[in-house]
């Protein structure tokens, strides 16, 4: 095995995927390389997923299975994997996604050439036979090195809005200094605090030329499609993002971006509230509304006014519902978005 500083661990997490995990592990076999290890993590599936992963580990060189005895959630599963990290580089892959032939060796060649601790990657969004190349909106790519915190602000979307753990390769220094972490109490949106931490703390990054990770869209089993209380973790995730920014030397500069992110995400969740039970809808409105109340209200009003009509109406509806759940709220909603 090569020295640790020239080897990469790919952490693959899976929970109750069954046959779907086969596409993922089959694609890994096309990326076998002496420099690359695969750590397959079964997150307490309770079905045949661990057996499928075990079979894949036997067939694929440099591959190990880590079977967790109970379901702990993807954030805790990743943190458990990071505790076992023996290489100096790490990346992630969800067990329901897959990669193109020779993807990880090509990507790792580029990482070693870049000379920075964080290399981000574009991806291919895949739904059925449809393929859409999705690029991180940043000029620091293809050999150009940039400062992550300078990529946070944008009139539209920016690098910090692409919050996927698998959209990057990380040196273990970022694990050791706490820049790369996943809040284990979050069952969804766990990548949001992670991506903000990285942008605020990592001194240099770039976006790779190599593209080949296929992100599967529209799965009914995906956490983004579920309608249970895990969806409500988005409010705690966003609260943690604000805490990270408040502790930063440029807090005043970045807080408007945080509030803009809140408005966009909360509007989306409110537009899709039909998947929640009435009790969960009210709870989400109460928690999201309380968090919105902590923002600078004139700045939040400017953000909401600039949103598309449907999003603006969603935020207004959410805040009205929040006010009804707690009549003692003192934040004035009059004029928000008008």
Question: Can you put this structure into words, describing what you see?
Answer:
- The protein is an alpha/beta fold and 338 residues long.
- The protein has 2 domains: 4-221, Alpha-Beta Complex (Spore Coat Polysaccharide Biosynthesis Protein SpsA, Chain A); 226-325.
- Helix content is 39%, strand content 15%.
- It has 11 helices and 11 strands.
- The chain has helices at residues 21-28, 49-59, 74-83, 103-114, 172-176, 191-201, 233-246, 251-271, 278-292, 297-305, 309-325; strands at residues 8-14, 36-43, 63-68, 89-94, 98-99, 118-120, 123-127, 130-134, 168-171, 206-207, 213-216.
- It has a 7-stranded mixed sheet, sandwiched between helices. Strands 5-11-7-8 form a 4-stranded mixed sheet.
- The protein starts with 7 loop residues before the first strand and ends in a 13-residue tail after the last helix.
- Residues 330-335 have low confidence and may be disordered.
CATH class of the largest domain: Alpha Beta
Assign a percent range to the helix content: 25-40%
Largest sheet: 7 strands, mixed
Q: How far apart are the first and last residues' alpha carbons, in Å?
A: 62 Å
Order of neighbouring strands in the sheet with most strands? 3-2-1-4-9-6-10
Whole-number average pLDDT? Answer: 93
Q: Give Rg in angstroms.
A: 21 Å
Q: Number of helical segments?
A: 11
Strand content: 15-25%
Count of all domains: 2
> What is the count of β-strands?
11
